[in-house]
Amino acid sequence: MKSKSQISLQLQTLHNEVTGSCTFCIVDYPDLTTERFALDCGFFQHDEEREYNTSFPFQPSELDFVVVSHNHFDHTGRLPLLVKEGFHGAIYTSEDTEKLLSISLPKAKEAVHELSKKLETPPLYSPEDIQATLGILMPIPMREKHQVTDHIWLTFFENGHVPGAVITLLEICFKKQKLNFLFTGDYNPQNVFLKIRELPPWVKKLPNLYVLMESTYGSLSKNKVRNTFSKTVASHIRNGFTVFCPAFAFSSAQKVLYAIKQMQQNHQLDPSVPIYLDGKQAIAFTELFASGQLNLLPLMEDFRPENLHYVSSDNRKEVMESPGPKIIVSSSGNASRGAASLYLPSFAGRSDVLIHFTGHLFEGSTSYELYHAPEGTEVTIGGQSITKRAKIASTHQFSGHAKQEDLIHFLKQFRDLNAVFLNHGEVPVKEELQRLIRKKVHVRYVCMTSREYSFRLGPTRLYEKKDRSIFYKSLCA
After folding, report:
1. What is the CATH topology of the domain spanning 8-220+403-475?
2. Cα 184 to Cα 93, 200, 251, 423, distances in angstroms
């Protein structure tokens, strides 16, 4: 049988926009052998995509390994399904993400139960599948090259998106041929809790580099992000309001708590004002952040504000109804599930409450609908019709995603960019970022990914698949 002349990597993202992150890759070698892997394996959280959660367009048992870029449910939520359906390789991740997944994955059963009710199907996976998944996590130290198959070497680099997040470099080698592939995961160049080192010079100089890069805020300039949280919260507390802050349990909630502590230190907030944190995961992650077990900046382990109290089902009603100014931070960030969803039916109808969202407002989510509804109109929350009377605010300042300028700067540091693949972003955002990259970055190809199309990469150029030529010509520059 005639052998192929070059390595090729076939790449297909299984998510169209910002949830359900998973990229399936097949490497074909000149000796006709193949290796398969996946980058992330997340849960689809938008209603119109939920059915995608139930299956994979590949055989999990044929995967050689999986890489997890960070601990967010839209990047990890289907790992147990992968294991249930026969995957038995290693799941490579950072040392911190391994610790964080031990908290977050067991809670996945709640989202799985909710999905099974909506689709009227059995649960996707069981607690036993979750435990089996945790058992095959393989933590890799930062900046240590690790051979994961006969021909693939993996190296993790620091990423400021959240604690434990990584940029992944895959070096695929066969004899004298080499294909260099960099995956950003969800990316940010800085994080208040972390020391983020630059990529080493040898990575920036890699020849014929392919980059798979997120684009969540690819249309948002840093100049448009206003750090208004402290001022808005302080003014409402002075006027006797209850301030309710839905926040994602991991990273966002801890950033909000630190911002509140800074308000106390800067005399913007009287330390006598009680601060409450609600949500089992938010509390567990907060305790882990403060424990010294994660690779955080030592000074940032003391991030919790004075007068902080944890809330449980035992005292939630009392906290909710207590008079006087107070701040309640509660998961989840979109207030569509978790403890936050229990507050909204009461707080949305109260004129003495400020609801301050701290994360991205996904269209169709409870937070999006409440934010955009005019005051005095009826909104549906948890099946109840409520007249909106609460004050509503929102900010991007706690986001863990790089803005437009940071994404462009990230790409400019590479000497020899062959192609950039944009994923994890809404289509109009990816289109705008694609145009900007073509204008400002020296790169041969700029491509938008989706679950409908695949790409084939070679060690020196981007191959065109014959059955995808129209897609190639319309979306690659």
Report:
1. Metallo-beta-lactamase; Chain A (3.60.15)
2. 13, 15, 18, 10
